[in-house]
Amino acid sequence: MDAKHLSVAERLLDWYDRNHRSLPWRSPPGAPPPDPYRVWLSEVMLQQTQVATVRPYFLDWTARWPSFAALAAAADADVMAAWAGLGYYARARNLLACARVVAARGALPDTEDGLRALPGIGDYTAAAIAAIAFGRRAVVVDANVERVVSRLFAIGAPLPAARPAIRAATDTITPDDRAGDFAQAMMDLGSMVCKVRGPRCLLCPLRDDCTAFRAGTPEAFPVKAAKKAKPQRFGTLFWAERDGRVLLVRRPDKGLLGGMRALPTGPWVDSDPGMEGAPFAADWRSIGLVRHGFTHFDLACTVMVADAGDEPMQGEWWPVAEIADAGLPTLFARAIAVVEGMR
Ligand code: SF4
Prior knowledge:
- With 343 residues, the protein is of the alpha+beta class.
- The chain is built from 13 helices and six strands.
- Helix 1 (8-19) crosses helix 11 (179-192), helix 2 (36-46) packs antiparallel against helix 8 (123-134) and helix 9 packs across helix 11.
- Iron/sulfur cluster binds at residues 148, 151-152, 193-194, 199, 201, 204, 206-207, 210, 212-213, 218.
């Protein structure tokens, strides 16, 4: 067919066949779909996390737990520790809950509705798994697709109100065949060509279809609603050491970083909580500050250290020399860097 008469999907799939990213959870273009376990795992890991960060986690994880059954049989604490550093820890708890449901029922459901009923699987993830693992036609819209489609159609409403219009526009270009390849092609185009800043329009297979390109304004889309500043909260982290070991606690299952191993901390509140939450009275010394951005607030924590002496207290005494193996979330890993910097 004359290139001018190809549909958006045909142009994009042709580009994907030659330019796709090779990723450990993918099948090559046109090949049979990958193992649904690997598709599901990668999609959950990729929620709010970059490909480069996810890749080593995915490889370690699949070597250790290669199937739903293997993951379902894992100890909760091992799974939470293996997830440390990926952030958004509710995902790890849901991942384990989902693996146990799937292992009990025998297989992952192959429809969007069936997938959406599982823990941790929302509209986007259900659509992505249905398309990529099961070849079903599904409208898959992640942040990359949002950007490409809002530019292709010059959708002027601001996000997030524009989402229904973006989804409807994506529906008009989604093909019946090669649905999984199409979804991955859109993701690759958004990541490699239709970039947030400096889109490489002259290399883009959809240039002739793109309203924003013709208008010379690709970077004006997607239109974003003005961002509200995140509130600032404050906290204190406590490093209590004795005989080469540091005191660690397990955070409550509910709430931020739930179920994760952690340094003891007080509350995270609007003004400095001082020594509230200290595991024992001692000569605590402040050695620095760590900052971490959560979804709904920014946190600044003072790091306090003390010698624990013979204080009786609840928790685990973890060897300081092996602290990297404790599976601590990023906030606490930053505090450790401060402690190590003072040694
Ligand atoms: Fe994005 Fe430019 Fe391609 Fe339009 S032409 S889809 S703005 S890269």
